[in-house]
Design a protein that fits this description.
The chain has one domain. The chain has 105 residues and is mainly alpha-helical. It is flat and about 50 Å long. The protein has 5 helices and 2 strands; from the N terminus they run ααααββα. The chain has a two-stranded antiparallel ribbon with strand order 1-2.
Length: 105
């Protein structure tokens, strides 16, 4: 019995084909478009699913390094500076602005 569910990876593949087929100038404008989307997806998943390290050691590290500290699935620390977080936000804004140019208003 076929499933009506499309997994996320398949959606990404379909989206990539649509962009390449119907909006080639989008890729010309932002050559790293798909790579940026992939990086944003990875960071989004980390911030959504990795807990903030609020252990005494994690808080001490935050105070000393001024980095946001998350714990991955293996309880390894993943650290982000405010600059890295700002760069991610800027990438999201760039992609949003670029995509909105192609949407009918």
């Amino acid at each position: 019995m076929p499933s009506d569910i499309i997994i996320f990876e398949k959606k990404r593949t379909i989206f990539k084909k649509i962009v390449e087929s119907y909006y080639p100038s989008l890729k010309e404008k932002v050559p790293t478009f798909h790579a940026m989307l992939g990086k944003i997806r990875e960071r989004r998943n980390e911030f959504a699913h990795y807990p903030l390290d609020v252990t005494p050691e994690g808080i001490s590290m935050f105070i000393e390094t001024n980095k946001v500290i998350l714990l991955d699935n293996m309880k390894e620390r993943v650290q982000y500076t405010h600059i890295e977080i700002t760069e991610l936000a800027n990438q999201i804004q760039t992609l949003s602005n670029t995509i909105s140019e192609y949407l009918p208003m």
